[in-house]
Design a protein that fits this description.
By secondary structure, this protein is mostly helical. Helices cover about 75% and strands about 5% of the residues. The protein binds 2-acetamido-2-deoxy-beta-D-glucopyranose.
Length: about 300
């Protein structure tokens, strides 16, 4: 690196989602509603689990941590996307762009490991119920959380290491509404073919790897459930079906994204909205939908919140 004409690009320009005023308006209404709803839903789960002592169990603590991640994940790109919808020039600074890439990959990595921890928790609860409390001890939970954040951070730092020193000097237009790493790399004025491959391989490896671990654990759980008596079976299956739905919703778009990288950018944008806006909104609904315990606790917490406000 000779230091001359290095990083002349100081900001990136998003092409955004659409030029049609009507589509932008519909996107604005839906994304804002989904964003507000997912912030409230996930915040309610975190509050409920932490305030209600009936829910102080590994399963619910992991769920609250997933909600925390969803809260962060939905706030990386969508508020800016919503704000940008009606702006003519949708710009982001170079540092802002790097920050988006960093947080997207941290959150993505943490979410994958958390989903694996949640699957392991269900495996122990269903297949080794007598040892549940000794295996899923507070120490085990902390171990899972620390590993999730370490893996997320390492994954993200490795991805960023590929880009921070790239020379940008030509075009700065991204056909997207957020800083999508492969697209940012394509803008560098150097030969990026190998770099694109490394970045795709890194993300592809972590997502396909986690997806297979999850699928295998669900198969083991289902086989075990099938062999044993049907007592508690329907409860196990309803919790498990919620997990499987979330996993398919989260990984479906990701894996599609990384296995058909040259598909249209329209599809890529749609999938990105799906993972950035829709999944964080759906997670709380899916986990509380058929969970009586959670619904009762949520009502209790909501009542408490309302009565605090009327007293004060
Ligand atoms: C995450 O889990 C830990 C324990 O496993 C818990 O103490 C913490 O409150 C959880 N985080 C959130 C945001 O609920």
């Amino acid at each position: 690196m000779d230091g001359t004409n290095h990083s002349v690009v100081s900001e990136f320009v998003f092409m955004g989602l659409s030029n049609s005023w009507e589509i932008q308006f519909i996107l604005f209404v839906f994304s804002s509603m989904l964003y507000v709803a997912s912030v409230m839903g996930n915040a309610l789960i975190i509050l409920t689990v932490n305030l209600d002592s009936h829910l102080h169990s590994p399963m619910y603590f992991l769920l609250a941590n997933l909600s925390f991640i969803d809260l962060g994940g939905s706030s990386i790109a969508s508020p800016k996307m919503i704000y940008d919808l009606f702006r003519k020039r949708k710009v982001i600074t170079f540092d802002g762009c790097i920050a988006q890439i960093f947080f997207i990959h941290v959150i993505g990595g943490v979410e994958m490991v958390l989903l694996i921890a949640m699957a392991f928790d269900r495996y122990v609860a269903i297949c080794k119920p007598l040892h549940y409390l000794t295996i899923m001890s507070p120490r085990m939970c902390i171990f899972f959380l620390v590993s999730a954040w370490m893996i997320g951070l390492i994954h993200s730092v490795v991805q960023l290491a590929f880009v921070v020193n790239l020379p940008f000097c030509g075009s700065n237009v991204l056909d997207s509404f957020y800083c999508d790493l492969p697209q940012v790399i394509k803008l560098a004025c150097t030969d990026t073919y190998r770099l694109e491959f490394m970045v795709m391989a890194n993300s592809g490896f972590i997502s396909v790897g986690s997806f297979f671990i999850l699928i295998i654990s669900y198969i083991i759980i289902l086989l075990t459930v099938q062999k044993h008596s049907s007592a508690g079976l329907s409860k196990a299956l309803s919790t498990l079906s919620a997990h499987i739905t979330v996993v398919v919703l989260f990984f479906g778009p990701l894996i599609f994204f990384y296995t058909w990288p040259s598909s249209s950018t329209h599809l890529d944008k749609f999938l990105a909205i799906f993972d950035g806006v829709l999944t964080p909104f759906l997670n709380p609904i899916i986990y509380t939908f058929r969970n009586q315990e959670m619904q009762v606790a949520m009502r209790r917490v909501l009542r408490q919140l309302v009565s605090y406000r009327t007293i004060s």
